[in-house]
Specification:
2 copies of one chain form a homodimer. Chain A has 6 helices and 5 strands; from the N terminus they run H-H-H-H-E-E-E-E-H-E-H. Chain A is α+β, with helices and mostly antiparallel strands. Chains A and B meet through strand 3, helix 5 and strand 5 of A and strand 3, helix 5 and strand 5 of B. The first copy, chain A, binds a DNA duplex through helix 4.
Chain lengths: 146, 146
DNA sequence: TTAACTGCAAATCCTTTGCAAAGGC
DNA sequence: GCCTTTGCAAAGGATTTGCAGTTAA
């Protein structure tokens, strides 16, 4: 499965004159392994032998190539996920900053409406629901009980 | 209209032991005047006599009081809007970073679904459509034509 | 071979903070 | 008068960049 993702990636990069370096392979494998929505720091913690500047530079490259999506929500720290994920939206905890996926049919209609109303050329859309995760709900209750 | 917003705000702040300072009034008036989705820099440009640290601190306060909403999308520079706006979603230009509102009925159902699937306590949701604004579409065409 | 890439260190950008002075209430 | 707030300057944290050495193709 990870191998499949990589196999698709190689010609994609080569067509653009970009190289398959061990660093690039490792960064993508690490994101695949971590599964959730890792930060640059999360990725670097897994592969500390790779310079953090290289991780930043490649993450930026992958976002511009639409291989990754940036989730810039939590407190100035961006998180990242693979772009070719099945339909889902995000729910964020306002207390701990956790991001969780939930399945929901893609709201394709909204893109059509947006195009008609704004004359933008549309690429994609994202949705975030804000709330408190179960763990942080309990912590709030404990504090109130003091 | 601006006066109305301010009149509501005064008791809201006082109840919480917070003060109505000229700086706070000016920052909110400036956001009302700018209308769109100003950055801290945009606000400071309008009222340079107020220290940028004070602007940052008060914006942060207003966000925590849910008077303002933070839009953390463009390239590490947050934009802000008043929280009590009528139903709308955002469309963002991937080239120039412009944020534009478009009207669409609030997707209340998605909050219910999210709650059931995740057990989060839900506060709100936001949606962003990504694309190219008409101006940037034209610029791309011009470049391609060279 | 050579153009792209890595990694270090320095620079940059945005934001927060410590603290003394000012000022709402 | 008390306690919050302001504003400066310094600190902090995340990200980008310049550049010399390295390496994929």
């Amino acid at each position: 499965m990870q191998k499949e993702q990589m196999t698709k990636l190689i010609p994609f990069l080569k067509e653009r004159g970009l190289r398959i370096t061990p660093q690039r392979t490792l960064i993508l494998q690490t994101i695949l392994t971590l599964k959730g929505h890792p930060t640059v720091e999360d990725i670097h913690r897994q592969i500390p032998q790779i310079s953090i500047a290289t991780i930043y530079n490649n993450i930026k490259l992958f976002v511009s190539l639409r291989i990754l999506k940036e989730l810039p929500y939590g407190n100035g720290l961006s998180k990242y996920e693979l772009a070719n994920q099945p339909n889902h939206y995000h729910i964020l905890c306002e207390s701990c900053g956790d991001i969780f996926d939930f399945n929901y049919p893609t709201l394709t209609q909204i893109e059509h409406v947006a195009r008609k109303l704004t004359q933008y050329q549309i690429f994609s859309h994202q949705m975030e629901v804000y709330g408190l995760c179960p763990t942080c709900q309990n912590e709030t209750k404990v504090k109130e009980g003091d």
